[in-house]
Amino acid sequence: MRTGNSPEGELLVGGQALIEGVMMRSPGAYGVAVRRPDGSIVFQRGKVASLAKRYPFLKLPILRGVAVLFQSLALGIRTLNFSAEQAMAEEKPPEAKPEEGQEAKPEAKKDDKSNWAIAGSMAVGLALGAGVFLLLPLWLTQLSEHYVFGGHLGNLAFNLVDGLLRALFFLGYIFLISRMKDIHRVFQYHGAEHKVVFAWEKQVPLTVENARVQSRLHPRCGTSFLLFVLLVSILVFAFIPKTAPFLMKFGGRLLLVPAIAGLSYEVLRFTAKHRAAPLFALLVAPGLALQRITTQEPTDDMLEVAIAALEEALREDGLLQDRETPREAADPLAVPLADLPASMPGAAARA
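The structure assignment produced for this chain is given below.
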């Protein structure tokens, strides 16, 4: 039974596909379910602290999108690391007790190392993304202007070529990783996440049978968000003069990325709310088409995992009654996240 203060129709949920699992978000909590090699499911859940309550300016349009982007990245990487550990876990012998006079390693040090590893992963990922999707297209556009177009590109045309190259790199990247067996399974879990979210939004019981018949294409998916980022960036980058030095053009693009993410987030929210209108349905269509690659039809056991993840989030948020028999669970992650709609799935495998 669903319980809670908010009407069901107004309660947005979303999530992210993981390695052999799913992370689901409700407004005030998250839940993770991961299938272990032995077939069992391990769970994790925790509260989502509201940064917007602490910093009210984060409720403002555009700024809320910037906040949700970086905070979702942090939560996504943490839960992704957790899923990788659990999906590859084998039965471990009990840890040996420290010998007399030998101190046990404090857990705090392990947590510190984990936090540094997550920060490092984010830094490396952002640096690679900036290099492949900003620096390289800009460099190739500058070369093509001199050697292909004879230096006659206007400011908008320059950015159109730059944006087209970014889009080609992005689509090529999605296509290449989709050919990998492990990523194909992640895309199946992505489809399972979407189907379960649809089942929740349609207010039908959360069962495998009800989820199976839902669409795997969702208008609030992070794949659609990334396409909006590509389109909005062409317009915003046009404000940087093409005659500026190369490093200034690249630096300006880096500085404008947060603003572009915030604008794209607002566009995604608006089009998702009005997707029934023909114009907005047209805007959402490319993202739904790309989801035919980034989501695949899940198996029933994948749907079971996605349902379990959503139920964990809802229980932690007080929107669903707790089970009398506790599930097998890992320690929850204490990750603050802005109280924004839980649909910022940032990477292609989010919803």
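Interim note for the steering committee: The beta strands are 14-18, 21-26, 29-35, 41-47. The chain has one domain: 11-89+131-316.
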